[in-house]
Every structure is written in C-alpha cells, then in structure tokens.
Specification:
flat, 69% helix, 2 domains, 255 residues, 9 helices, mainly alpha
Length: 255
C-alpha cells in the first residue's frame, strides 16, 4: 500500500503540473490536493510501521508533501508561477520512487521524540529553503514593476526566515538527541551534521546581507538561489539511493 499510494501521488503531481501549464488552475488544484492526500497517506503508513523508530533516510518521500502545500497559496497570486513548484514536486516524487535509499535497521537511540523533531523540522526547513530559491529565481528572470519586485523580495525573505526557524529547531533537537544517544551534542564525523551546520551558517549570513554595504536588494535573490542549490546538493540528494525499479512495476508480482 505504501508504494501504491506514493505512485498514485506522483501521478497526481505530474497531472497537476500538466494542468497548470495548460492554464487549468482549478483542475490542477484538485489534482494537487489528490496528490497530497495520497502522499500524506503513504508517509503516515510509513511512519506508523516504523514508529517509535525513525525512518531517517525517508525524507525524499516526505519532501514532496510539504512542498505541495505551497502551490495552494501560490495559485491565488498572479505574480507567482506555481507551475515551477509543481514541476519540482513532480520530479522529486518520481526521483524518490526510483531512487530509494537502502533499507537499514534503526538503532535504539532513535526512540526519543527529539530524533523525530530533528527529522520532521529538517524536512519542512528544506521545503522552505527550496521554495525561496524558486521565488528568487522568478525575481531574477522576470522584470517586474518596483512594487511587485519589492513584494517578491519580501516573500523570498519570508520563506528563508521560516526555513531558518525550522532548521534551527531541527539542529537543536538533533544536538539533544545526539547527547542523549551518544553522549555528545555534535558528532562531527557524520557528514550530515557538518552539512547541516554549513547550511545553518549560510542562511545566518543570508539574513544579515542587509548589513553588508556592497550587497543591495537586487543582488540578494542570487544568494537565495545558491542556497537552494546547496540544500538540494548537500541536504537532499545524499538521502537518495541508487536506481531501483519499484516492486509494483515487477511483472512477476502479478503472475
């Protein structure tokens, strides 16, 4: 049921994107909601079967769900291009389906609420960071009026602030979890920890760009795009596995 429901979500996301580029916003919205329901069911069952252990490397299945909540608001704004978000959601869903990470046996240290908060808040933060990159890309690509451009810059900063908030909570929950499980708040030998700290430091710098005289408001979207690319490269792709054909596509399962 997990794979079937997630495959259904991926199909709905793709159809929603097709509806958006065809100008059928209402149909696209309905298909998006259907995809979110299927995706939500899939991750709920996935979590139910592993709880209280933690599906740490399952974030690629969770990220399209949180990313999918953003276009619902974007569809009501004329200056947004929700098709870009829907395209990315669709690509992420299909990538998660065909590039799942290896299965592993969870440790006993995962049995704490802080490990789950570290995971969930981290996924939500990635969604906001990637959204800010898409919004910034639209600012760079389109030449809007001063008022519209200013509004877009505010939305980029707002997305970064929300992402930074959730990422900070995730990092601190991870530190508490690490201390409870391994006796140290930071395990520097873990690449996931070092890249998470690097991401936190990068967005800390981003939120203080207004204090740097040679970086004006028009240049800030470039830093948001770079940050989103960093998050995808170092906080999202490492959770992907090698190519694997899902069992639901195996003919022998139906013979």
């Amino acid at each position: 049921m997990i794979q079937h429901s997630f495959l259904l979500a991926a199909i709905f996301y793709l159809l929603s994107f097709c509806g958006a580029i065809a100008g059928k916003k209402h149909i696209s919205g309905i298909l998006l909601i259907a995809g979110l329901l299927a995706n939500g069911y899939s991750i709920a069952i996935r979590y139910w079967l592993t709880f209280p252990m933690l599906p740490l490397y399952q974030s690629p299945f969770f990220l399209p769900f949180f990313m999918g909540l953003f276009p619902l608001k974007a569809m009501g704004n004329a200056h947004h291009s929700e098709s870009n978000i829907l395209l990315l959601i669709s690509l992420m869903a299909w990538a998660a389906l065909f590039f799942p990470n290896d299965h592993y046996l969870p440790f006993i240290q995962f049995k704490t609420i802080f490990s789950h908060l570290f995971f969930l808040f981290g996924v939500i933060a990635r969604a906001f960071f990637i959204l800010s990159g898409l919004q910034a890309y639209q600012c760079i690509r389109k030449k809007e009026t001063d008022e519209t451009a200013l509004q877009q810059l505010r939305e980029v900063r707002q997305s970064v602030i929300w992402g930074y908030l959730f990422w900070t909570i995730s990092v601190f929950c991870g530190a508490i979890w690490s201390y409870l499980g391994w006796g140290s708040p930071v395990v520097w030998e873990d690449p996931a920890i070092t890249t998470a700290m690097a991401t936190w430091l990068y967005y800390s710098l981003y939120l203080h760009l207004h204090l740097i005289s040679f970086v004006n408001a028009k240049n800030r979207p470039f830093f948001a795009v770079i940050g989103a690319c960093w998050v995808i490269a170092f906080n999202y792709l490492p959770d992907m596995g090698k190519f694997m054909l899902p069992n639901i596509f195996m003919v022998k399962n139906y013979i």
